[in-house]
Design goal:
about 250 residues, alpha/beta, 8-stranded parallel beta barrel, 12 helices, about 15% strand, globular, binds phosphoenolpyruvate
């Protein structure tokens, strides 16, 4: 059975006090047993978040990391640093990193290798722009991102991958892909994985949807056959909306 995952990506939001308040509230919640709950706070709050949730079924995730082990990279964070504060999962290839910080498929494949060498799980983001969607090239765009960023991995390496399909036009815009659009792309991603690896690996790979998921649309999106959960931005900043999304899977 594939994992169901709801992961909150806080981006550059929530300072230490806000992070403390959020986790104090989140720790009081009951989670469905079959859903993995993850939160990616700012780097500065990873240590606090990890320590405060140690006894709870909440995984603390990093939003990014550098591809090198150590060295003269002012402002950057290594895999070893993340592991030293208990982080075992990292988001790579978020469209904001690709667009605002020039992260290319080549760079991302290096980051992927470093994360795998460090035995980390990767939530690898892919997704097309509005222009690419309108031009009808969205499946090719996503397929190229998968091929260049991930498909060099061995079968064993690929088992540490969670894919997050995030159409760029739906991130932070309030516009969500329709459940049909999400399902179509998730099925296409799963079929690419089957082609490059095997049916077995494709069936086991969790594929999350991200892009303006909210309490009122999560159930319909999560109800699609190939959607295994969500990567949630804005709606993960408040416990109430985040928990409604965590509880949105139909049995
Ligand atoms: C994201 O940043 O990964 C995201 C999906 O954001 P939002 O839910 O706010 O669209």
């Amino acid at each position: 059975m594939r994992k169901k995952i709801v992961a909150g990506n806080w981006k550059m939001n929530h300072d230490l006090a806000e992070t403390e308040t959020f986790f104090n509230e989140l720790k009081k919640q009951m989670f469905p047993e079959d859903v993995e709950v993850m939160i990616a706070p700012a780097f500065t709050n990873l240590n606090h978040a990890f320590t405060s949730t140690r006894e709870h079924p909440i995984e603390i995730v990093a939003q990014n990391m550098h591809q090198s082990d150590k060295g003269a990279f002012t402002g950057e964070i290594s895999a070893a640093m993340l592991k030293s504060v208990g982080v075992k999962t990292v988001i790579l290839g978020h469209s904001e990193r690709r667009a605002e910080f020039g992260e290319t498929d080549d760079l991302l494949s290096e980051k992927v290798n470093t994360a795998i060498e460090n035995e980390m799980t990767i939530i690898f983001c892919v997704g097309e722009s509005l222009e690419e969607r309108k031009a009808g090239t969205h499946e090719q765009v996503v397929s190229k991102q998968l091929e260049e960023g991930l498909f060099h991995l061995s079968d064993v390496g690929f088992k540490n991958i969670v894919v997050a399909y995030e159409p760029v036009w739906a991130i932070g815009t309030g516009e969500t892909a329709s459940p049909e659009q999400a399902q179509e792309m998730h099925a296409s991603i799963r079929s690419s994985i089957a082609k490059h690896y095997s049916d077995g690996i494709a069936k086991e790979t969790a594929i999350l949807y991200g892009g303006s998921v909210k309490p009122d649309n999560a159930a319909e999106i999560f109800g699609q056959e190939d959607v295994d959960g969500g990567l949630i931005g804005g709606a993960s900043l408040k416990v109430d909306s985040f928990m409604k999304i965590v509880n949105a899977f139909q049995k």
